[in-house]
Every structure is written in C-alpha cells, then in structure tokens.
Amino acid sequence: MWESAVVVAMMTLGIDPAAGISESLARQRANQIANLRYSLDLKVPAAKTEALIGKAHLRFDLKDQSAPVILDFAPGAANLIRASASYQAVNGHLVFPAGTSEIEIEFRLGDASLNRNPDFFYSLFVPARAHLAIPCFDQPDLKARFTVNMSVPEGWKTLSNADLGVETQPLSTYLLFFGAGKFQVETAEIAGRKYRMYHRETDAKKVERNREAIFDLHARAVAWMEDYTGVPYPFGKLDFMALPSFQFGGMEHAGAISYNSSGLFLEESATQAQRLGRASVISHETAHMWFGDLVTMKWFNDVWLKEVFANFMAAKIVNPSFPELNHELRFFLSHYRSAYNVDRTQGANAIRQKLANLNEAGTMYGPIIYQKSPIVMQQLEKMLGEKAFQQGLQRYLKKYSFSNATWDDLLAVFGTDLTAWSKTWIDTAGRPKATKTRSYEGFVLPDGYGEYHLEAKSKTYLLAHLPEIEDPLVRAQAWSALWEDQVDLFELALKAIPLEKEELILTRLLGDLDRLMWRHPKELPRVEAMLREGMNNAKNRSIKSAYYQVYRSVAPVEWLEKVWRKQLTIPDLPLAENDYTRLAAELMIRGVDVRAEQLARIENPDRKAQFAFVMPALEKDGSAFFERLKDVKNRGHEPWVLEGLSYLHHPTRVAASEKYILPSLQLLSEIQKTGDIFFPQRWMGATLGWHRSATAAATVKQFLAGLPKDYPERLRMTILVAADDLLRAQAPPR
User: Fold this and answer.
1) DSSP 3-state assignment of 193?
2) Given Cys at both, which of 51, 188, 467, 710 links 499, Cβ 3.0 to 4.6 Å?
C-alpha cells in the first residue's frame, strides 16, 4: 500500500514513476539537487560468480526540501544490505523522504553493466546504465564529483577516472568508469604529460610494434585540441584501457578511456584504412574530453551534439599525421555512404530526436549521429567561416565548462539566426533534395549531400568511363552516385579495381565488391582470378592486405588450407594469430573441420575464449549456437555474438539461415533492453545483411505488419534500416 502511495505522490509532482529515467523525473531532480558528491568503496571478489559489494556515500544540497529524493537502482531492494535512511523501492528507484540530503548505502552491485570476466571486469554505463550497477542519479545533467576506492584480488590492477581515493572533476554518471583485473601497464611521457595504457595483449612483439604510435597519437590529439579550443586538457590524468572484444571502438570515460584492443594493436599487415581507423578512434575519444565530458548535453536527445564534434574534430586532428592523404576525399568516403545507408530508408531519423525516457536512449545512436551530423557541421563551418566557427566553439566550451548545454545554447553562442537551416538539417529526417549540381564532361553529379538521381546520359557515361576520371574525389562521388541509384556495379567493379591508383578509393571498391560478388555466384572464378592478380602485384603491403582480406573468402580451399597449415606463405604479408583464426573459419565454412587444431593453436586466452564461443556457429547446422543466444547470459560478449551471427548468415549459407530471421526479430526488444547501445542495429545488420530472397523479405514484412501499437518506434525503424537492401531487392531494377 505504501508503494502505491509513493507512486501517487510522484505522479502528483508530475513525475513519471515508470522504470528507467523519465524526462519528467530528470527535470524534477535537476531543479532539486545541487553540489552532488559520491564516495564509492568497492570490494571486488576473485570469483566471477560472487557479487561485488559496494558502499556509496552521497552528499548533496537540496534546492527543494518539499519533494522526496529519488535515486535510481535497477537491482532493487533485494540487492540492498543497509541504508542510512528509510526508503521505498519503486520500479527500479529508491524513494527517500523529503529533506534527505545525505545517504549511505551498502549494496551488492548489479552485473548487467559490469562486463565481468574470469580475471577482469570493466564498467560501461553509457547512456544510462550506471543505475544497473550502483545507486545514483543516472541522468547527464546531474554532474557530480566521484571518489572511488577498490579492494581487489592480489595481482589485479585498477583503473578509474581519477587515481583511487582522489576526487574527480564534475562528471555525468555515464562517464563514470571503474575496472580491474590482470592487466599489463605501459607508460610514456610526452610534452610533460604522463600516459598509462592498460592491456591484456600477450604478444610482446605486437605491443612493442604499436606502443609508440598509440601514445604519440594520443599526445598529438591532446595538443591539437588544446590549441584549437584554447582550453587545457580538463581532467588531470589521461589513462586508457585496451579491452579484448570491447563493445565499441572506444568510450570517452574522462581520464580513463576504454578501447577495443584490436583497434589499437594492429598487425604487421595492417592496411592504410586500419591505421587511419586507429588514429581516428583515438582522436575521436580524445576530442570527447572537451565535447561531451567537459561540456555535456542536458538530455540524450542532444547526444548527437557530443558525437558530431568528436567525429568532426577527429577528422581535423588526423590530417597532420597523414599528410600524404587527400583528406577531402577521406571525409567524403568516411561519412556520405554510411549516412545515406540510413537516410534513404523508411527508418530514417532526424539528427535531433525526441526522448521521453533514458531506457530508450541507446536506440538513438547510429550513422545519422556519427556520419550525417559531421557533414552538416561542415556546412555550418563553411557558412560561418572557419575562424568564426572556431571562436564560437571556444566561447561555448568556456561558458559551459563542467556543465551542460543544448544545441540551442550552441546556436545562441554563434550569434547568427540559424533557425531555418537547423529545422531542415537537424530536425528533419531523410535527405533533402540535392538542388545544386556540378557539370563535367559527359556527366552531372550532385554538389553536396542530398537525394539525387542520375540522368540516363550521365549513368551511361559513368558505367563506361568512370575509371578514366582524373580527380579522385570526383571519381569517388561518381561511384557513390551510381551506388545510390541501385545500379548493379559488379562489372564496373571488376573493371575499375585493377585500374585504381588511389588507395582510399581502392579500399572502398574492394569492400563493395565483397558484397556485389555474392549476387553473381557463377562469376566467382573471375573475381578470384582478379583478386589473386591484384594481391600478387600490389605495390605495397597495405594494398596487398586489402586485396587479401577479400580474396580469402573466394580463394580455393586447397590454397586456404596450405596457408593455414603454414605450408605456403604470401610474399611480404606476414600473418598473425587473428589471421589464422579467420582462415580456420573460412575453411570450416567450406566444410574443412580444423576447429580443434585452431583452438589448440591460439595462445592468447581472450582470443581462445572467443573462438571457443563462436565455433558452434561454424557447424553445418548452427541451431545450437542460435539457441544459446536466447539466454541473456550468453550474450554478454556482444562482439562474439555478432561474429557468430556473421558465420551463421554467411552469404553461402543464407538459404539455410532464413529460419533464424523471425526468432531474431522476436528477440530484438529484449536485445535492446539488455544490450549496449549499438547491439540492436548490429544484431539486425548481422541477421539481414546478406539475405535477398522473397521469402526472407516476406518474413520481415509480416513481422512488421503484426507489431503491436506499443512496439518501440525506434526499434521498428532499426528493422527497416537493416532490411532496406533486402526489401529493395524485391523491387524491379531501374
């Protein structure tokens, strides 16, 4: 009864008592609470099966003494050991009496956002998953100072935003980080700043080969950001942790960045694209220290505001480290295709979206935020002028340091009326019609981002003459225009790839061929011959590796097995443990069972565990693998799950894997509730990416038609985006 009374009281105050963090609850607390501090003492057991025990001491000022104080703690009262004040547990909240301004709680931490492994763990709280582990006010505009202490098993190393026992600068809860385990630590000092890198890589040569570049890229990014913004690095120390199979490329925890280990520790055979990717993710996460960490959005409807500047600044930061590159071309290739892939679909969303509850915030992430918004920001920079744009950002950062701001706050700082422009580009979904064009000899292309359909004359000319276009940027734009018109570019790819001299474009063409060739199974021998010749004649190792990564999926089984058994080497292309694991997977897809031998070969324990997990997906009947995924306990390592799904739905297996489409769709809402931010879209992409049959399309259409009215709209849009190529394949060709 008392619980019902609490719910009624919350509703009387205009607070939505639903699970998660509603916008009404967040607004009420933002007006109620100030000067927030947390002290967290964590006891970490050696056994993964035992709970972490925590003690949280919260202190804050109350601007409103009349309303109850509502903490978020999803594990609920069952996980509380002791609290210093009376409370009531309601829908994942702990409701304390009005006037409470200091709370001490002992509790068992929830595991859902702790990513626990046998000998290490790490927190990942974005966008609002801190309350799945600890009691807190889990919203971005209640920044707080955190002091973290950890008691860990002997031999484990610890990492948090500040050194243990040291108070942080004000942070949002999604930026809080603590992790511990059996890690090695590399250190460097550059320009008077110390850096520490935590990692679990067991290949000492790989660490040594990459170490200097990793530290140098961080130092360059920090120096560039300090110079551009006029704001010194805001968070004292800058440590980072390279994690095996991390869910993202990186995560911007202030002072303790998390990375996917494979993106930092590159192989000897790394391509130009992989080196660029590493530089970009390091620059992106470093830029977040200013855009996102120092100044944070008030509510996650403006999550794009931190991501756009992280990506936009990263593109600028990377330029000096790769002076040989055509950076205008790289920007186009990095952003336009990915943005179009969503913006052309029925599932397109605006850059800025509405959000009623943070339990849906994860569904807002995607290419519109990461790729379309930098294109739009480039427009704004050109409209305002580079200097005025930079000065506006400097004023914005200084005005809102260690605080929160909205997109409208930023527009006000620029001092120019951008209302109409913002409505078109920020608040409207889909591609505006491209009204500006550029004429070339024989063809016309759109000038800028937007929906555009090639004239028949231009299409005919480009299909015949595209490789002859001298300007690399125009050549890439022409290929993009043909791709967007849904032209079958298989023959043009076979013609263009051997002639392409620009490595950035060659990488794109090879990637596109990797998709196109499976639509022409009878032509695979031609593809194999062309790729083999390109690999053998490549002018450098980077290009050779780019060819190889496509070639291995069509190479003769006998060749694959000889390379895997180390009876055959590829000149100037050294292969590493990951390469042999991928070769083993290719062999197993072709019916050559080398699972046991490959598992015995793998030395790194994290990579061994991953291969053991995905092996059942490589069996002829992968049903056992898919059945395991229905249990949330088996979805904890999301990259492992996605790798297994890629094998299950391999292009040579799509007929057999259609039976998994419907249960995958049925699991999507649970995937969204229990997984991290990119998991729903990646789950659907891995499931539907290669399917083109009418029966597969019918399964998707029937599922969409039968959705209940209360099905989350963003999840429906996620399905539409992932299914776009499948649904378009049923339409008559243009």
Assistant:
1) strand
2) 467
Count Cβ neighbours within 10 Å for each residue of 652-673 and write b for 16 or more, e otherwise. Answer: eebeebeebbeebbebbeebbb
Length of the chain: 734
Tokens matching residue 59: 């202190």
- Count of helices and strands (H, E) across the chain: 30, 21
Q: What crossing angle do the helices spanning 303-318 and 373-384 adopt, rounded to 10°?
A: 70
Cβ count within 10 A of residue 729: 16
pLDDT at 283 over 80: yes
**CATH architecture of the region 2-182:** Sandwich (2.60)
Averaged pLDDT score across all residues of the chain: 96
Q: Average pLDDT in the 203-222 region? A: 98
- Dihedral of CA 471/537/507/199: which sign? negative
701 within 8 A of 709, measured Cβ to Cβ: no
| Cα dihedral 333, 337, 343, 344 sign | positive
d(CA 124, CA 178): 9
- Cα dihedral sign, 712-718-719-720: positive
Is 391 within 8 Å of 400 (Cβ atoms)? Answer: no
119 pLDDT band (50/70/90 cuts)?
A: very high
Average pLDDT over residues 22-33: 96
For residue 105, give the H/E element and its range.
strand 102-108
Tokens of 438: 């550029």
How, if at all, do strands 238-243 and 178-181 pair? unpaired
Q: Which residues contact 625 (CB under 8 A, 6 or more apart)?
A: 614, 616, 617, 619, 644, 648
Characterise 546 by phi-psi region: left (phi > 0), alpha (psi -120 to 50), beta (else).
alpha
User: Where would I find the H helices in 469-523?
Assistant: 472-484, 490-496, 503-516
- Name the burial class of residue 225, with classes exposed (0-12), middle (13-18) and buried (19+) by CB atoms within 10 angstroms of its CB: buried
pLDDT for residue 556 is more than 80? yes
Q: Which CATH class is domain 295-425?
A: mainly alpha
User: Three-class SS of residue 253?
Assistant: coil
Confidence at residue 18, expressed as pLDDT on a 0 to 100 scale: 73
Q: Which two tokens stand for residue 128?
A: 């609002």
Question: Among 263, 250, 240, which Cα is nearest to 193's?
Answer: 240
Residue pair 300/358 in contact (Cβ under 8 Å)? The answer is yes
| Cα–Cα separations (whole angstroms), residue 600 to 77, 597, 604 | 45, 5, 11
Structure tokens at 124: 């990942």
- CA-to-CA distance for 692 and 729, rounded, in angstroms? 6
Which amino acid type is present at position 731? A
Residue (of 197, 177, 84) closest to 134 by Cα position: 177
Tokens of 92: 């994942």
Q: Which of 515, 516, 513, 557 is nearest to 531 (CA)?
A: 513
In this prediction, residue 10 carries a pLDDT of 72
Q: How confident is the model at residue 1 (pLDDT cuts 50, 70, 90)?
A: very low
- The Cα–Cα gap between 642 and 676 comes to 13
Question: Which pair of structure tokens corresponds to residue 55?
Answer: 């003690």
Query: Which pLDDT score, from 0 to 100, does residue 15 have?
Result: 73
Task: State the residue for tokens 């506006």.
Answer: 392
Segment 94-107 shows an average pLDDT of 97
Nearest of 351, 354, 262, 254 to residue 307 by alpha carbon: 351
Residue type, 674: T
Q: pLDDT class for 733, splitting at 50, 70, 90?
A: low
pLDDT of res. 486:
86
Structure tokens at 80: 């509380």
Is 83 in a helix, a strand, or coil?
strand
Distance CA 595, CA 591 (A): 11
Cβ atoms of 158 and 150 closer than 8 Å = yes
Q: Cβ-count burial of 434 within 10 angstroms (0-12 exposed, 13-18 middle, 19+ buried)?
A: middle
**Predicted model pTM:** 0.96
Lowest mean pLDDT among 7-16, 271-280, 364-373, 545-554: 7-16
CB-count exposure of residue 638 (10 Å: 0-12, 13-18, 19+): buried
